[in-house]
Amino acid sequence: MKPPAHTPLIQVNQAARWFDVSSPWLDRVIHRRPRLQLKAVDGVSFHIDKGETLALVGESGCGKSTIARMLAGLYGLTQGSISFDGQPVQNMSRQQRQAMRRRLQMIFQDPYASLNPRWRVGRIIAEPLATHTRMSKEEQRNKVDELLLQVGLSPGDQSRYPHQFSGGQRQRISIARALALGPDFLVCDEPTSALDVSVQAQVLNLMKDLQRHLGLTYLFISHNLAVVHHVADRIGVMYLGRLVEVATRDELFATPRHPYTRMLLGAIPDLTGAGRTRVPVGGEVPNPLNPPSGCTFHPRCPHANERCRQEAPQMISYSHSQAACHALEEGRL
After folding, report:
1. Please, which residues bridge with residue 53 across strands?
2. What is the largest CA-CA distance in the chain?
3. Measured distance CA(257)–CA(318) in Å, rounded
4. Are 226 and 265 in contact (CB under 8 A)?
5. How much is the pLDDT for 4?
6. Could you give all domains of the chain from N- to C-terminal order, each with its CATH number?
7. Nearest to residue 239, comparing CAs of 189, 284, 194, 269?
8. Using H for helix, E for strand and C for coil, what is the string for the chain?
9. How far is CA 89 from each of CA 9, 117, 159, rounded to the nearest angstrom?
10. Which residues contact 283 (CB under 8 A, 6 or more apart)?
11. Which of these, 120, 167, 266, 301, is most buried using a 10 Å CB contact count?
12. Among residues 198, 28, 170, which one has the least CA distance to residue 109?
């Protein structure tokens, strides 16, 4: 994929993360089994501009959360590179990495598991301040008061424990903790999937308001296309560890190009009463330990031919999108 003319906040080039899932050495020797590599992310490239939201969507197991953890520094790279504000992360000094950690934070999927149940809320939110700043205890308390108000909670909540809050309130606490150091970039790994639908809307609106007021940049991971339509500026569609389409939100929903994107959008129930036929996503995701040759989507694609079975497609640019599909390239769609 061609890089943008300007310097984006995040630039990912051919990033891959493979996991060794082999049997123990002795078992492999006795049964003559080879090493097994799970290619969770396999050569992904994209960029995120300052102030925008890029959403990644796809079925479970496609590599979305692995990318989130790679960007947050929780997983290393098997190959490829990631640059933050023009600086390759691999080449950063220790001081530069510490500075980057202040500017990059993560909001996790499960607000019940991501907060320490033994700590009071004030200590949870103040933890980044205690670790990365020289604020006094009084300054930390004042800052936590500001953060709680910013996410729609009360300063009095500092003395309470996570179990005394609802799921939506816990996720607001997680957001407050992520904002403590004044970051530029938030990695949001399905931050609303564990919440009720009405609460999801409140948290999403809060995140959009914070982005507008603070100039935040988001990578938003989700499998819910309705959520993505609400928050995203651009959308990347992933399948089996690779990006198959990247487009602006309006372009992707109006004119999906890749057959997999069309299947995902076709599976959304029609609530307008227009009588649109619901098209289920056909087939099953192949075993990622033994992915299909060529285009990994070809066993489920109605437009696949021999080239699709033999040759992996490359990203090609169209008006406001890029897609990797031989059928699209050859005009067979």
Report:
1. 218
2. 68
3. 9
4. no
5. 54
6. 48-73+92-232 (3.40.50.300), 236-333 (no CATH)
7. 284
8. CCCCCCCCCEEEEEEEEEEECCCCHHHHHHHCCCCCEEEEEEEEEEEECCCCEEEEECCCCCCHHHHHHHHCCCCCCCEEEEEECCEEHHHCCHHHHHHHHHHEEEECCCCCCCCCCCCCHHHHHHHHHHHHCCCCHHHHHHHHHHHHHHCCCCHHHHHCCHHHCCHHHHHHHHHHHHHCCCCCEEEEECCCCCCCHHHHHHHHHHHHHHHHHHCCEEEEECCCHHHHHHHCCEEEEEECCEEEEEEEHHHHHHCCCCHHHHHHHHCCCCCCCCCCCCCCCCCCCCCCCCCCCCCCCHHHCCCCCHHHHHCCCCCEECCCEEECCHHHHCCCC
9. 12, 33, 38
10. 299, 300
11. 301
12. 170
pLDDT, residue 294, reads: 92
pLDDT along the chain (333 residues), means of 10: 70 94 88 89 94 93 92 92 92 88 90 90 94 92 96 94 93 95 94 85 93 95 89 95 94 92 80 57 79 91 91 90 92 83
Q: Which two tokens stand for residue 23?
A: 């049997």
What is the residue whose two structure tokens read 């020797």?
29
Q: pLDDT at position 112, please?
A: 84
Nearest alpha-carbon partner for 106 in 139, 75, 148: 75
Query: CA–CA separation, 160 vs 79, rounded Å?
Result: 44
Report in angstroms the alpha-carbon separations of 175 from 162, 184, 210. 14, 13, 10
Structure pTM?
Answer: 0.89
In the structure encoding, which two tokens stand for residue 100, read together? Answer: 């980057």
The answer to whether 150 and 179 are in contact (CB under 8 A) is yes
Residue with tokens 């308001």: 209
171 phi and psi, to 5 degrees?
A: -70, -30
Residues with Cβ within 8 Å of 282's Cβ and at least 6 positions away in sequence, in order, are 263, 300, 302
